[in-house]
Amino acid sequence: MLRRPLSRAARKEERTAWVFLLPWFVGMAGVTLGPMIASLYFSMTDYNLLSSPKWVGFENYGKMLDDPRLRQSLSVTFIYVVLSVPLLLAVALALAMVLNRGIKGLAFYRSVYYLPSLLGASVAVGILWRQVFGTDGLVNKFLGLFGVDGPGWISNPDTALYSLVILHVWTFGSSMVIFLAGLRQIPEQYYEAAALDGAGRLHQFRHVTLPLLTPIIFFNLVLQVISSFQSFTQAFVVSGGTGGPSDSTLFYSLYLYDEGFGRLHMGYASAMAWLLVVIVGFLTAINFYFSKRWVFYGDGK
Amino acid sequence: MNHSSRLSRRSRLRAVGLTCSVFALALTAGCAGDSSGSNGGKTVIRFNWWGSDSRHEMTKQMIAVFEKEHPNIDVQPEYSNWDDYWKKLSTSAAASDMPDVLQITDPFMYSYIDNGQLMDLKKVKDVLHTDKLPANSMAMTTVKGGLYGVPAGDSAFGIAADPAVFKKAGVPMPDDTKWSWDDYVKVSKAVSKTKGLVGTVMPLYPNDLGPWLRQHGEDYWTEDGSQIGFTEGTMAGYWEWVVKLRDSGGTTSADAAVEALSSGAGVEQSLVAQHKAAMTDVSVTQLGALEGASGREAKLLLFPGEKGASQVGAYTKPGIFFGASARTEHPKEAAELLDFLVNSPEAAKIQKFDRGVPNNPDVLKAITPELSPAEKRIADYLGRVNALKPTALHIPNAKAGPAVPEIFQRLNEDVLFNRLSPKAAAKKFISEIKSQL
């Protein structure tokens, strides 16, 4: 260990730090790590929650290859992530730029736009969404003014998933606040210099804002991909817990929940959880790999 | 220097102390959470059920009466709605923390019986008297010689029809002793011709599937429950009929029906309760709730197709049972509560038919003078079904049975939204059930 020996005082301080960190470590071990290890074990068993698990090795993982509902849930989740994440980031960035103009009452608007992020995954909003997109909901009332007879957006398998995408995009607030902080970091001189060189607003955005914001975009992208993959509440509430109609909103985590607690296949559900870990880990790794090509860190790294 | 290091030690000690007290708090909270046991000399037992708000209120009143009769027992109520009852129960079973007494039903209860989670009630027959309960009402909970549940009351599926809507549409009420499944479609279509009315609510639960299969001489399961008891052709026929009903315009749109279902709307919010539909399939014990919401009288009709069928389709059976946890530390007290729930006229006077028509004839007799007109009509309907001398519904397979309603509902939506043909759906229905066996 090439570590400089610490002074007595520093060592004491370090020990104090450990003591303060202890609750977090205990929580991490007990609430996160423990269940994860347990689920790894359960994933190799036949476990129905009602009697003790029986060891089956990799059988559950093999079963996943031949499960049409698993494929359906993966495709639903991928479509959801691929559509909602870029849309959400674009909306968040656009609004952050508008708010960054230094308009009056910024704090108020920031709070108003942030609110949906806090509420979006809640049960209440899921229920609200049913009212808005229902057969007799707001959207159809509005379409009715133009003589259009809209479908039940959330109860028709062709449109149900897209109404959930919109719900997710609506929760752009947390990404927006991070963008707003990023925009504040960009020195004003860059814009002045660009303006002197005759760059218009579009050029300024394209050649100053965007490159300097790439680390923030990257950060938001990684966070959003991970959280979108784990979406659960919206689909659970909107579809009444079934992932219906016709499995059109069967998110991966919803299917996992139903297999584990509904059909009592906890071994299989645990294996599914590990597949999710692998998928999300893989996508994050890909994100980091490609980030070298487009993410610009100011310090030249 | 010396002084300051003492101080810092003190603050460190304080930090350690704080951390420990947080854990201590968490631990005591954990202990306090365990409510099963003794409380001031009383034996505490937990009782879990699902239901509507009115059932929660009535059951709490019943518990109060029970506690008065048994001053040594303290019953802790735990209740929820139907939606997540079984998911919560499986979690508590996995944690070995199941309530002592629970409300159960088929097909879900068979997973619990099969895995030894429920107590064999024959062990407590000194306290829980079953001699007044008809043997056929306990057939469903008798598995391998053990008795795992006592019936809360008989029920049946049927069609609730609103004569006022038929009158408004100028369509005569169908004669349910003669009508066919095609007549059902025709009548629905005729009612729907009047603006603002539909003939029937789109069936999304398999309430009418049992009668359909039985009329074709089949059943969900073979008699011993080991195999699927119906053929692909009969199942495809059912879904062809569903498509015919949908295309006739005699029913709500698939969109609207799915929406009502996923929002958890009960019979109180159904289109019949809103005077917009003439008919809906129901569990007949809900008639009172339906009439309470609609404010007018509804009639109970038999499902179509009984005339000329190879077997009587309609059937009555207990819709709800009560059982006890195999791990209960208080089997005697649990049995006393079970005995009260099924054999006490006092309990029945409070809940009437909410959990079905009492199976104990003495109890039924005791409450008969107090029945409302709706309850009398429920009793009449069950009497009509029993007069057809129906055979008993076969007992579901313990492993695959609980998955059937969910598989049906999903494939039924596939058919309604034209994603699967009736034939393809029937084929998939059978193969999906088989994969669960």
Automatic annotation (TrEMBL), chain B:
Record carries keyword Signal: yes
Pfam families: SBP_bac_8
Residue stretches in coiled coil: none
Keywords: Signal
Annotated signal peptide: 1-26
Domain of life where this protein originates: Bacteria
InterPro entries referenced in this protein's UniProt entry, alphabetically: Bact_solute-bd_prot1 (IPR050490), SBP (IPR006059)
Name of the protein: ABC transporter substrate-binding protein
Organism, as annotated: Streptomyces resistomycificus
